[in-house]
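Question (not urgent): is this output format expected?
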Amino acid sequence: MNATRGTLRVALVGGPMYDRLYQRLPEFEDQAGWHVEIAFKDAHPALNDHIAEVYSAGTARYDLISTHTKYAPSQAQWLHPLDDWISDEQIAAFAPSIVELATIDGKLYGLPRNIDVRLLCHRTDWIGERGPETWDELADMAQQVAAPPDRVGFAYPGCFSGLFGTFFELLSSAGGRLFHDDLRPALDSDAGRWALNYLRDLHSVRKVTPPDLPDMHYDEVRAAFTTGRAAMIHDWPGGYEHIVNPETSRAAGHVGISLLPSGPAGLRCAYAGGFTFAIPTSVTDLDGALALLRFLTSYESQLLEARGGALSVRPAVHQQIVALTEPGSLAQRRMKLLDETVINYAIIPPRFPAYPQVEDTLWQTVQGAILDRLTVNEALSSLERDITEIVAGAG
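Got this back:
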C-alpha cells in the first residue's frame, strides 16, 4: 500500500442502486494512497438539500460530490469545469450524448456515471408474460390483479423527483409539454388534465396503489415489488439485480420486463438523465480529487455497476455486457429494451438553474391532486401561476 497522501472528503448519493460502486474505494485507497472519507451519503433528495445548504452557507468541505445532469445547472456556481483537467481522449471514452448532458454553457461540469431510463416490471405469475401496451391497459390490469390489503396492482413514486418524472412521462405520452419554448409553463392543457387525472384515478378512485404511496420514492417502490406487495412498477436499470435475485426478491423467477406503456397520443416516453461525479469549488486536494473522479468513472468501475444492472455510458463496457448476456434470456430482452428506450423514447427535463424549484413545486402540487386536496383544474392553474413566478424570479 502507498503511503497515505491525505484524506478526500466526499458527498455521495446512496441507496441499493449506488452503494455497490463504493465497495471499490478500498482498492482506490490501496492503489492511489489517498484515504476517502464518505462524509455524507444519502438518497438523492437528501443529497441535493445537503449540497444546497452547505454551499449556500459557505461551510462545505468536499473534494468530490455526486450530482446529476438535471440538477448540475443549479449547482454550477459551486462546481469546477473539468475541461482543462480531463483530456479529450478520456472524454471520448463516454457516449457523446451523456457528455453533452454533463456540459453546461459549453463547459464540462462532471464525468458521467450512468444513464437512467425506466422500464416496466411486472409479475408474470399474476399478470401473464405480456406487459401492458398502453397506460389505460395498465390501469385495467392493476385493478384486475389488486387484492388489498396484501397486493396492489401498481406502485409508482408518490413524492420528490420520482413523482415529477412519472407525471412528466404521462404528460409527454399524451402529447403534452412542461414548457413552451420560452419557458412559459404549458401544463394547463388536455394532456396535463389527462396525466393528473390518471394518477389520481389510480390512487384515489380505483385504489390500486399502496395507501402509503405519498411516502414512497424509488427504493420504496422497488421494495414493494421485491416483497411481493406490488404487481407492477417501473424502475431504473440499477435496480435490476435486486429484482431478479432470489436472495433479495420474492418476485425472482416471475419477472417480466417491457417498454413503458404508450399514452393517448400513441407515444412512449421515458424520463431520462444521468448521475455524474463533480469537483466542487471547495476542493482542497485537486490531484487526489481528479484521481478519485477518474477511478469512479473508469472502465472497471462502470463494468462493476453494469454487472449489477446499471446502464453504462462507456460504449466499450456496454458492448461487453451485451455480449455476455445469454441469448433468449430476460437479461438480453432487458438490454434490447433499454437500448430501444434510450434511442427512441427518452425525454429530458429542461435544464436551467431554477429547475429544482420547479420540480419541487410540481411534485407537491401533483401529490395534492392525487390525494384529492386539490381538484385537477385547481392544481394545473396553481402550477401555471407558481412556475411562472419561479422562472421570472430566476431571470
